[in-house]
Amino acid sequence: MDFFKALGSGIKFDRKKFQRDIQLFEKPTGGPVSLNAGANCEPGAELDFFAEAKPVAKANPAEETNDGGDAAKAEEEEADALEPFHGPSEIQAFRDRHRIAYYGEPSVEPVRSFAMLFERFTFKAAVRRNFDRLKFTKPTPIQLQALPLALAQQDFVACAPTGSGKTLAYVLPMLHILSEPQRVGYRACIVTPTRELATQVYELLKVLSQGTKFRINHLVKARPTQEGKETDQVKKYDILISTPLRLMYEIEHDLIDLSQVQYLVLDEADQLLELGYLQQVDTILAACTHSGLRKQLFSATIPPEIEDLAQSIMRDPVRLFIGFRNAATEDVEQRLVFVGQEAGKMVEIRNMVQRGFAPPVLIFVQSIDRAKELFHELVYDGLNVDVIHSQRTKAQRDNVIANFRAGRIWVLIATELMSRGIDFKGVNLVINYDFPQTVQSYIHRVGRTGRAGRKGIAVTYFTREDAPYLRSVVNVIRDSGGEVPEWMLELKPATEEKSKLLKIRPPPRQPIITKPSAVKWKMAQLK
Ligand SMILES: Nc1ncnc2c1ncn2[C@@H]1O[C@H](COP(=O)(O)OP(=O)(O)OP(=O)(O)O)[C@@H](O)[C@H]1O
């Protein structure tokens, strides 16, 4: 109990909601405990919940990893660098230094800085002001190249690590290209796999478009059929943000007109081009009939088969890759923990709590049932925990996210729903309680920490049954600069057939039940 009191030092609670917590944590006896998982938790220091991002130590990973000469060169690339490039070889050297791989024609020059971008492209004063308020000093590597590429109105596929600012790379050019609001209907459309991600993109667009008259429709709510008809009312919108299922419904019920869309972005494109979403995305593509339509695809993971598919729906796309293909961000320390059997996972979690941990923590499990089970275990342990999955109402999901962002929830249990795109800047630790079913899932889950230049830790539990799938994750850890024991590198990768099976169906696992109270709850569920 002392540990929790200590851990609570400096944390503000919603007093009504956390009455019990307040009783437990009031008048802490000492400073926070030194915790092995906490980048923010030095002995004696106050917990730093969702503080402003720390100085971006490595906005451009190349700056730290290259040799002295390159580092000195990178130093020269000040935030306001305007020096033009002198020919293709200098551009190539610049791209190499920032680990930008650029395939295709035309070769659009990158920018050295935001100052150079705004010198080359004259943005509306309001958008410039709004951008300045974000206080981003240097473009991330994907932004160095994708911003001018998008502004040159090219089709492209962009693959860059999680948390490296891909959203800005399409949202900012969109506002420049659309230029002025026009009452002709949607001219830009952004599709994301989840409602939560759509909301996040909408929030950034709202910030950047303040003071302009652009109208943005965040289409995630169901609406009565008549209300949605393509009336003058709907024509006032310039930009649409939606999820594929919602949008397909609108198209199939003739509620929406996408014929004026000239700028289509698929965020988390590899997921959108997978079987589960393909039909919906096909319907959306077919509805975007404008001859000048430009398509841009973004993700932190673009497997080769998806790259081929992407190319088939685009016009000579440029392909942009930052760093290793399909690697995890280098800002996350990745650990693998062998837990023997299922029961070992709860032991490990409880040990972690005993040892101390620095919230906020995000825990991933493979199914809704397991999310509920784990929630009941941890709630009975007295942890400040909540759970998010698709069976919760939209309002509940929004509340959970807001509470987690505000530090009112310390531990959030999530299903795959939250694995992609969601930007929780302050997450210190991600735990893969259940081993991810694909290497892409691993990369995205791990990428919920270590964002925008911050550091993070990701711990993945594995049982004997998970061992055959370990190798692909081991490769990701190695490629992102992590250390892995030699024996793991000698493991055989799972066969293609086995990996495909795992992707479709999670493996059976023992329920997460260790307490009589949880058994009672589970029995009631099964009735
Ligand atoms: N140039 C920049 N400097 C500092 N922070 C930035 C910069 N660009 C974006 N960010 C911040 O980085 C964070 C991550 O950005 P974003 O969510 O766009 O990442 P992403 O690459 O789309 O990640 P994911 O693949 O997980 O969706 C955000 O909080 C954003 O505000």
Automatic annotation (TrEMBL):
Protein family (similarity comment): Belongs to the DEAD box helicase family. DDX52/ROK1 subfamily.
Subcellular location: Nucleus, Nucleolus
GO biological process: maturation of SSU-rRNA
Keywords for the protein's UniProt record, in alphabetical order: ATP-binding, Helicase, Hydrolase, Nucleotide-binding, Nucleus, RNA-binding
Originating species: Tieghemiomyces parasiticus
Cross-referenced CDD domains: DEADc_DDX52 (cd17957), SF2_C_DEAD (cd18787)
Principal EC category: hydrolase
Recorded GO MF terms: ATP binding; hydrolase activity; RNA binding; RNA helicase activity
DEAD-box RNA helicase Q domain ranges (all copies): 116-144
Protein name as annotated: RNA helicase
